[in-house]
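TL;DR need structure tokens for one chain.
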Amino acid sequence: MYLRSLTLNQFRCFEALSLSIPSEMTLFHGNNAQGKTSILEAVCVLLRLQSPRASALADLIRFSEKAFAVGGKLEGGESSELRMQYRESGRRLMVDGETQKRSADYLRHSALVVWMANDDLALVRGGGDGRRRYLDFMASQMYPGYREATKVYEKALRSRNFLLKRDASPKWAEIDAYTRILHEQGRMITSFRRELIESLKPKAAEAQSLISGTGETLALVYESAAGEDDDLAATLLSRREEEFRRRQTVAGPHRDDLSLELNGMPAAKFASEGQQRTLALALKLGQTRLFLDARDQPPIMLIDDVFGELDPDRRNALMSAWPEESQKLITTTHLDWLDERFDSANRLHVEGSVVS
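>> reply
TL;DR here they are.
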């Protein structure tokens, strides 16, 4: 699938923008804080209904406005005209001019997406939240039931935490009604994540070895926070005193993590910055290969300013590892690193929210 056009209205810094995207590789170049990343973010919101940079879609509305809209045309296989309108009171999803009642109906007409950014280093150095978001973004594209399971789980989690905080003496009968929901949906989420990581392991390891050029070994280990045999209900019952003390749900998929080991050692502690940066890229390239193999569909790659921190060898290895058939939208602050592989790329300059 290829994105051939993009329109924005009141999105981030853009009052309005209409772009034709004719080539399979497009470079958005210009100084920082001009709107380059917001264009890639808009593509992600259009295609996956979520932002890689903001937890709430309301944050994407242009200052002083009340709503935003993004639209675009996909070609390849079954062509579709997609449009999403968002305001704090709700959203409207349309495919070829027809309103879609459910996210799943809309997403069936969309494309797979891989987001690569300079701050992906946080996947290695940062806390578990970022790694869980990475897994969620992948799994929601791989497994049709995953997105709904996480929505039900998160809603039940909020309600359960509210009840734990509300009363001086928690009403466990009420709380356990939500425990059952967490247990049921949590099993689904954990099962999907385990399957996903098992499929990702060899692809990420291969990418790590390729980009580093040193034969480094990368291991991914899923750390479930649901307890023995993923029996979340039993785990929460056994930790009731801790929950009473802390007034929050202390176990479940919202506390899972993905352990990253390089040459048998924890990457966050023992890997150099160059190794950590390579590892973050390998995770995203592994995701790309996973989509290609599992879904037989090249993802659209959104690549946000990743080249500035890479030495020429790693940069060349990364570019060589990109799937040829994927459409690539790339941001960069300068063009002096380009070589002949970018001769046919569509180049667009972004300055002051104007694209030329």
